[in-house]
Structure formats: structure tokens, C-alpha cells
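Quick start: read one record
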Amino acid sequence: MNRKHFILLIILIFVVLIAVSLVAVFHSAVKEKNTADDIGDDAETEKVMTDLGVDERSSSQPAGTGAPVVNPFSDEQLLLYAKNVYYGIYYFDDAAYYCNKSEKTPSASVIKVFIMEYIYTGASEGKINLEETVGNQSVEALVKKMIQNSDNQATNTLIDRFGMDAVNEYIKANGYTQTVLERKMLDNAAREAGLDNYTSLDDVMCFLKKLYNNRDNSPYREMLEIMKGQTVRTKIPLFLPENVVVANKTGELENVENDVGIVFSDKSAFAVAVLTNNTVNSAQTRIEIGRLAEKAYEFLLTNYAEINN
């Protein structure tokens, strides 16, 4: 190779190195821009969701179902009238579950569904006779009064007959980790002494799922029919069409408004539970529970139309 060819080779290598450097700088700039755009899009999306009031705190909606991944429901209105709010909405068609949080909270009369489950499960196992007369009424009749009319005297009669310990042993054995029966109904002295009845969103949703999933089998078939006869319709059923079947159980104390149940459409159903305490306006809290159930029902009709046709 002569001197002239050698110089040309050096110049060519130099030009190639410059070109490679320029390409690297260009790709780096593009990557930085794309990264910045992604961050900006995420921030913008978050801002839009916040502006729309979309609650994304808890939603176990499965991917690929067609329903929104974010939580379409909110506790915002309920929190205007109650310091503590726990709500959950579960659609049985695809196991979509929307909720905020679960903590141990006063159950009020919602505790009665667990007493009912203890009695009817015991009856199905041959341990309890529903026809046994207690206080001039059958056990079965007392359970119906306890659930459908929230009869506190009927409840206390059943507690006296079977005992708190037996009920609590059943509750614990069946995985209701935050539910406990500590006092009889209307026992203000026990409340003043720090005793109360408790449950949680997780526990009541567990019961409602069990109730629906076993609706064709005894004893849950009978329990579901009892709950369908609920006479207190001031919360979950409040704004639903009159022909909509609701199986629910309410609970009230001076500063507690609760309602848990299953709402049925023609071919589908969903469970809804709202537990509140430290309420500042009980009447308005009941209305907002009804509004949440109404929205959940409308969501069912809108998002599960293909399933239900």
C-alpha cells in the first residue's frame, strides 16, 4: 500500500467513526423524548382520573373481562355522613370485585346472619332441630323473625338457647376472622363495659359469596329464601325497581348504618355490602347506601348485558 492509499484509509475510518457517533446521539435523544412522553402521559392520565373522581384504590377486576379495570365506585358521598366507610361490590358473572378497604367494625344486627348460618348449618348436620320449641316458638320461626324483622328478642332467645361460645366457635372455624359475638342485643350495659359485636367487609363478603354459590343446596337455599323476605328496605333496596329481588340484612346502632345482601337481575346477581360507623347523619347515610346499590345495579345492566341476554 502506497502513502496515498494509506492516507485515504485513515480519512475513511475517521468519517465512519463520526457517523457512528452521530447515530448514537440521535438514538439517545429519541429515547429520552419517548421516556419523557410516557411520564407525561401517565401524569396526564392520573390527573384525568382524579378530576373524574375515579377511585383506583382497590379493584380486583380480572383482566380481559371487558369491564373497567379501575374502580367505578366511590365512598366519597358516604364519607360526607360517616367517618368510617367500608364497601364492596362483587359481580358473580366474572368475579369482578370493587371495594375500598376492610377493617373490624361494629356489626349491629348484621351479626344475625352468622347466628343464622350457625343454626342452619347445625340443622343440616343433624345437630340442631329447627322444629324445637323455644319460648313458645320454633327455632325456625325465631330465625325468620331475627332476619326478616331484625327482632332483637328473638335473637336473644336463640343466643340463650345455643350460647355465645358455640356461635363464636362456629364463626372462627369457618374463617370469619374479624367477626365476634360479645353481647346480646340491646345490652347497653355490656356496650358501656366495652363489649360489642363486630364483623368486617371481608367476612360479610365471604358469607354472601358462600350464600350465592350454594343457593341450590341446603342449608344455604333456605337461608337465602329467609333473607329474600327482609322487610327493612330503607338501604340497599331503596332506589332499586320494585320487581328486583334483594336478599339482605340491615344493621343499625346510634352511630352505625350497615346493610349487606345479594341483588338479583333476571339472569345474574351481585353481592353488595356497606358497613359504616361514626355516622353524623343516619338518614342521609341510608340514602347514600341506597344510591351506591342503585349505581351497582345500573353497572350490572350496562356492563353485563351480553351475559344476561
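The chain is about 50% helix and 15% strand.
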